[in-house]
């Protein structure tokens, strides 16, 4: 027993999978302590805010003290952020038509481009081959540029509530900075927000927890059912075996997922909590555990130690628990891990069809993907709303499968390398 | 002297186990297999009986039926002169107090997850010693171990796989010593044991028979062993008993062809191995 435990701890596959799952579980249980509030709070008004740090503009203006920093290229950056690539291409086209060699114009180096532009641009010039509409659009770009390069102070005015008078409260220079840590209200949205304006990272962690719970409940139900039926069917034999195997065969022939859809549909949206969905998944996936436990029990039933146990007058439950179960325990643990994994995947599949847990009360990985898909996150380029979810499902099922392979290598000597 | 007593008791002894038309059929329809086919037998008290046959002749199935581990398809088994009744768990329990077994493979006879003490404690509990003080139980186990030349102090707290095959099989005999059944079914108890331990184990079984007047039923494919230990021999072929009688009668003056072939197949030390002759004989069988 001790030896087996040591072998398991030395199985690399198992340990990698186990540690990954533990890290995920740790994050799931720890994160809510740092980031209080329900993961389903709709904090953002609008859909799919980008990932990043959000700083309250209102508080940023009021934040004191301010610091003066002289940073090179700050103005250029400001311009860069406001000068789209299309405008730069238009500038280049004008310059080339004006007679500047093509190689000399570099749209990527903004400083260079601006210098060249300020030195050469002449609003009255009429380079050959340019329409008057294009010349006008270039003239507009030039006006914008002039405005951008001029560094005017930003003045903040406040409206007096009684008189309605405007009073200047702050004047912000272009080299004035504040420290982000001194701003009262900031929010780190690692994965932005989803379509409802929920914090996607927080929701992802909460959803992972719920999905693991669903997987665990479904896995335990399926394994316990399968184990019980398999043991009884294999050991007792006869008519009991025939009846159990009849139902097992019936469930094998009917595609499990279709059954799952039908049951979920007939339960109805109101009754479908996470636990109910987990139970439904568990009740439809016991078949394979039953079949394999039965096969193993059949081969153990005729072993001499079982016969001896019967001759010693032990009862049927005692023989099943002490003489059969320990011999197949390793197999059952492996089956349980796989059942947990397939439970998580089944929930995701059901939720994608809108038949998962009640949509407004619990976050699950499947539901996050469902809403991402419904609000066309993949077409809007909002990768943060669905890609991390896919990654998390893949990571969880990959680690569970790694654990299973690792255990298999320990318990099945033929696989040891 | 003791031999004389035993011979007398055999002569006077009644039947302890007998069967009439005992049949076992596995499967149905096309997969129907008759493993044991209308077998009649009469085992007397304190006798040593051998059931000899090749692999697949139905010996082990017969043993399982005798032990009540598998159902009898047809026919009746009589235990101590009365029709056997093992319909309830209580009745089975009582039956197994009177009839016990030693199996062929000592390595698979133990639950590897339990310590050795558990096997012996089960026996004490089965004979109604559940309420005994722990000290008394330990004494009983130590006595049983010393009967089979094992030291209880060395075995306690050990797992079965820490013992050798011979030690395991001797411990099985210690189990029988504690249970003291009136009938012991020994299903090839020495076939997986090395030659040195074999004689020791047989001697221990025969000693046990002397001490508690137990009937021993040997099941074996080794007709030489059967001749060495038994009073009565039953020869089984394809689920049927083809010949039975006193060991001397059956083995020295065999009547059935099958018995003669079995006897010819025993390798003899004083004759050189005749390969050509054996080959010719195999050809005849085919």
Q: Which key features would you list for this structure?
A:
A: 417 residues; mainly alpha; MetI-like fold; 2 domains; two-stranded antiparallel sheet; 6 strands; elongated; B: alpha/beta; Rossmann fold; 12 helices; disordered C terminus
Describe the protein's topology:
The complex is a heterodimer of chains A (417) and B (286).
Chain A: H1 2-10, H2 12-34, E1 52-55, H3 57-62, E2 67-68, H4 74-82, H5 85-98, H6 110-120, H7 132-149, E3 154-159, E4 166-172, E5 176-177, E6 186-189, H8 200-236, H9 238-253, H10 256-267, H11 274-284, H12 287-301, H13 304-311, H14 316-352, H15 365-374, H16 377-380, H17 387-411
Antiparallel strand pairs in A: 1-6, 2-5, 3-4
Helix pairs in contact in A: 2-8, 2-17, 5-7, 8-9, 8-11, 8-12, 8-14, 9-12, 10-11, 11-14, 12-14, 13-14, 14-15, 14-17, 15-17
Chain B: H1 2-12, E1 15-26, E2 33-44, E3 48-52, H2 59-67, E4 74-79, E5 82-83, H3 89-98, E6 99-102, H4 116-126, H5 134-147, H6 152-155, H7 165-179, E7 183-187, H8 195-212, E8 215-220, H9 223-229, E9 232-237, E10 240-246, H10 247-252, H11 257-264, H12 275-285
Parallel strand pairs in B: 3-8, 3-9, 6-7, 7-8
Antiparallel strand pairs in B: 1-2, 1-4, 4-5, 9-10
Helix pairs in contact in B: 4-7, 5-7, 7-8
- How large is the share of residues in beta strands of chain A? 5-15%
Total DSSP E strands of chain A: 6
CATH class of the largest domain in chain A: Mainly Alpha
**Do you know the CATH topology of chain B?**
Rossmann fold
Contiguous uncertain segments of 5+ residues of chain B: 8-12, 279-286
Q: How many beta-strand runs of chain B?
A: 10
| Largest protein interface, residues of each chain | A-B, 16 and 23 residues
- The CATH homologous superfamily name of the largest domain in chain A equals MetI-like
Q: Given the structure, what is the number of helices of chain B?
A: 12
**CATH homologous superfamily heading of chain B:** P-loop containing nucleotide triphosphate hydrolases
Q: How many structural units, i.e. domains of chain B?
A: 1
Query: CATH topology of the largest domain in chain A, what is it called?
Result: MetI-like fold
User: What is the total number of structural domains of chain A?
Assistant: 2
Q: Low-confidence spans of chain A: pLDDT under 50, at least 5 residues? A: none
Radius of gyration of chain B: 20 Å
Shape of chain A: elongated
Question: Reading side by side through the largest sheet of chain A, how are the strands ordered?
Answer: 1-6
- Mean pLDDT across every amino acid position of chain B: 82
Provide the helix percentage of chain A.
Answer: 55-70%
In CATH, the architecture of the largest domain in chain A is: Orthogonal Bundle
**Helix residue percentage of chain B:** 40-55%
């Amino acid at each position: 027993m001790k030896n087996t435990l040591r072998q398991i701890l030395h199985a690399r596959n198992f340990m990698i999978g186990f540690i990954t799952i533990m890290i995920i579980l740790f994050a799931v249980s720890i994160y809510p302590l740092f980031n209080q509030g329900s993961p389903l709070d709709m904090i953002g008004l609008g859909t799919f805010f980008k990932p990043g740090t959000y700083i309250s503009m209102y508080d940023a203006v009021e934040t004191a003290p301010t610091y003066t920093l002289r940073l090179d290229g700050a103005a250029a950056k400001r311009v860069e952020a406001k000068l789209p690539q299309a405008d730069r291409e238009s500038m280049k086209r004008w310059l080339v038509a004006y007679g500047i060699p093509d190689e000399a114009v570099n749209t990527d180096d903004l400083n260079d481009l601006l210098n060249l532009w300020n030195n050469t641009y002449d609003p009255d010039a009429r380079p050959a081959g340019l329409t008057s509409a294009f010349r006008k659009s270039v003239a507009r770009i030039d006006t914008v540029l002039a405005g951008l390069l001029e560094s005017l102070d930003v003045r903040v005015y406040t409206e007096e509530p009684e008189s309605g008078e405007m009073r200047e409260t702050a004047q912000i220079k272009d080299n004035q900075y504040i420290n982000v840590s001194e701003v009262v209200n900031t929010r780190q949205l690692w994965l932005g927000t989803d379509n409802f304006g929920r914090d996607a990272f927080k929701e992802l962690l909460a959803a992972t927890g719920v999905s693991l719970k669903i997987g665990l409940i479904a896995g335990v139900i399926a394994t316990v059912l399968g184990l019980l039926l398999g043991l009884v069917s294999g050991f007792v034999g006869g008519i009991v075996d025939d009846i159990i195997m009849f139902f097992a065969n019936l469930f094998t022939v009917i595609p499990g997922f279709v059954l799952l859809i039908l049951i979920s549909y007939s339960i109805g949206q109101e009754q479908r909590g996470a636990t109910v969905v987990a139970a439904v998944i568990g009740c439809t996936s016991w078949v394979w555990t039953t079949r394999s436990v039965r096969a193993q029990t059949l081969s153990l039933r005729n072993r001499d130690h079982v016969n001896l146990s019967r001759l010693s007058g032990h009862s049927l439950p005692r023989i099943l628990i002490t003489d059969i179960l320990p011999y197949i325990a390793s197999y059952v643990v492996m089956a349980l891990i796989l059942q947990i994994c397939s439970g998580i995947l089944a929930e995701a599949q059901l939720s994608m069809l809108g038949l998962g847990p009640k949509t407004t009360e619990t976050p699950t990985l499947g539901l996050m993907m469902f809403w991402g898909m419904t609000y066309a996150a993949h077409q809007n380029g909002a990768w943060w709303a669905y890609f991390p979810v896919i990654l998390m499902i893949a990571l969880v099922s990959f680690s569970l499968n790694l654990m299973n392979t690792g255990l298999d290598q320990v318990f099945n000597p033929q696989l040891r390398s | 002297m003791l031999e004389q007593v035993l011979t007398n008791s055999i002569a006077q002894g009644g039947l302890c186990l007998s069967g009439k038309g005992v049949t076992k059929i596995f499967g149905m329809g096309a997969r129907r297999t008759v493993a044991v086919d209308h077998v009649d037998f009469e085992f007397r008290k304190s006798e040593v009986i051998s059931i000899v046959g090749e692999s697949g002749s139905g010996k082990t199935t017969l043993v399982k039926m005798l032990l009540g581990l598998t159902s009898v398809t047809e026919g009746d088994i009589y235990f101590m002169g009365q029709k056997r009744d093992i319909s309830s768990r209580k009745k089975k329990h009582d039956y197994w107090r009177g009839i016990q077994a030693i199996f062929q493979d000592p390595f698979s006879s133990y639950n590897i997850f339990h310590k050795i003490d558990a096997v012996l404690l089960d026996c004490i509990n089965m004979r109604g010693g559940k309420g005994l003080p722990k000290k008394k139980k330990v004494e009983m186990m130590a006595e049983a171990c010393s009967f089979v030349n094992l030291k209880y102090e060395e075995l306690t707290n050990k797992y079965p796989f820490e013992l050798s095959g011979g030690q395991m099989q001797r411990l099985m005999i210690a189990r029988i010593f504690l249970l003291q059944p009136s009938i012991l079914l020994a299903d090839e108890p020495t076939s997986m044991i090395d030659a040195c331990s074999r004689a020791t184990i047989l001697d221990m079984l025969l000693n046990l028979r002397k001490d508690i007047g137990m009937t021993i039923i040997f099941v074996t494919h080794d007709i030489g062993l059967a001749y060495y230990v038994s009073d009565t021999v039953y020869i089984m072929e394809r689920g049927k008993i083809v010949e039975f009688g006193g060991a001397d009668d059956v083995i020295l003056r065999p009547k059935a062809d099958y018995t003669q072939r079995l006897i010819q197949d025993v390798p003899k030390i004083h004759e050189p191995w005749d390969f050509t002759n054996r080959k010719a004989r195999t050809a005849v069988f085919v």
